[in-house]
Every structure is written in C-alpha cells, then in structure tokens.
Predict the 3D structure of the following.
Amino acid sequence: MEIEITDEPLRNWIKSYFAIDHITSAIRPFMKQLFEDKFQENVRKVKKKSNLMNIYECNSCDPDKVKPYHAMSGQCSFPRKRGRCNCAKENTIPCPAINACGMLYDIMTMEHIMEEPIWSNSNYEQLSTRACEQMKCYISCTGYRDVSNVDQMELTAFFQICTNNTILRRTLDDDDIRMLEQVKNDHREIVGSTDASADKFKKYVSNINVLLDYDTCIVDRDYFISMELKKLEDDKVKITICEEIHYIKKALYAISKAKAELQDESEGDSGDQIRLLETVESMQRRRLQQQTEVFIQELLRAGARYQPG
Ligand SMILES: [Zn+2]
Ligand SMILES: [Zn+2]
C-alpha cells in the first residue's frame, strides 16, 4: 500500500513542495492577523466617516455599481485609475447604509497601488463583514471568488495582497518583502516543473532558512519548521504515491492561478510563459491520471490480501 517514491528528481520535487508548504503554514498566522487588523481598521474608518452609529453590515452593494462617497464632491479622487471610476458611471446605486459602501469603495481604492482593486474576487454580500473578502480584492488576478478563507490562500496571494495594498506594504519592512518574494518565486519555479535536482531542492531549503534566520515577525516561531526542514534534508520523510498525487493536484491549482495572472499582464514574454506552463500542466494531468490508476490498483490488491478474522 505504501509505495515509497524512489525516483530522485521526482522525490526532490515533492520534498521541495513540502518545504514550501511548511513555510506557507508558518507565515499564515501572521497574514491572518494582518488581514483581520486591516479589515477592522477599514470598518472603523467607514463608520467614522459616514457617521454610522450601528454595526456596519451591508449585503446589498456591488462595488462595481455602488455610488462612491467622493462622487458628492463632483471631482474624481482617483485620476491614476486605468479603468473607469464609479463616479463616472451612470446609474450607480447609493448604499442604503448612509453611503457606507461608497466610503468603503473610496478607502479600498485609495489603498490599492494602482487604484484598481479587483472587486470580482470578492463575494460582495460579505465585503462589509469578512476580512478575507476585502483582502482578495488586492490579489493581482481574477479567479479568487471561491476562496473563502485565508487557509486556502497560497504564498503568491499573500505576497500580492501585501504589495498591492500600500498600507500593508508599509507595515512590512523591505527584507520581509524581499524574502517573501524569493520564497514566492521558488514556489512558482517548483510549480512550473515536474521534477527537481538535488541542488535545486537544497537552494529552496536554504532560501527558507535565510528567512528563518532573519529576525522577521512574519514567521510563526511556534511552528516547528526548522525541524521539519531538517527531516526533509535528511530524507527522513515518507514520500509515497499519496504525497505525489496530493502535490500534483496542488501544482495544477497553482498553475491555473499563475496562468490567470500572466493573462492579465499580457505583456513582455507572458505568452511564452503561459505556453510553458501549459506544457507542464498537460504533463501533470497525464501523470495524475496515471498515478491515480496505480493507486487504485494498489488499493484493490491490498484489499484482496486482507483476510478478515
Ligand atoms: Zn471617481
Ligand atoms: Zn451598502
């Protein structure tokens, strides 16, 4: 039942992904808190500026159609915005909760580095009540509406939210950002390949160790990551077809997100990069199908061997 993976490059690829998973888990608690604090701050600002005495909770405003608060001034607050500001759209709808959602539109747009939050990433009915729904609007590409909590987010999403939101960007120091970017890029490299050399695996672990050695607040020290990395380096981790299937599925998900991001960029060599990812994607799909069949066969054989009583 427990078929250990012995193919070295494949084993290294899985171990590399394991390492990335560990650092993502160690960073996640910080991100959760950071996003929650930012959300609470937004709610406080909305309530104060729109003189809302009660709880701010509105499930009726679509930020793509809401009348912005600044529309009252007759002048647009976001001249750098590439897309059309809601204040220039006809038939926008004022928020029934004393323009609170119009104020949220202004605050969230102002804090976006391009003044362009991606509203379609959120379920707008929950925009006033859930941190995750607000933060997803700072991810660089579309396709995150179904992601319903921070536990489902990957490193790339963390990095993009922290760099696209100008306030969050300022709360992190340059070294945090630089290292977060390095690990994010390593993740991307792993996802864009189907195996890894021993040197590559070592490089990924060493990049994570640099982040751990540095006195950063973004890593949860209670998470025994150094121990887990050591186990991976010493090759003392069980890596079977189950882990292989698990990580192929994760890689396929990450590839779909990477492609969406490149499609939104549509400049430079993004077309070439998309084609490369598509090649890896079809290889991984084939492997997933093949390995799932092997796995089922093994299950059946194990079942046949099993003699109850
Ligand atoms: Zn405007
Ligand atoms: Zn509203």
Remarks:
- Residues 99 and 137 are 20 Å apart (CA to CA).
- Residues 58, 60-61, 95, 97, 100-101 surround zinc ion (ligand 2) (CB under 6 Å).
- The chain has a mean pLDDT of 93.
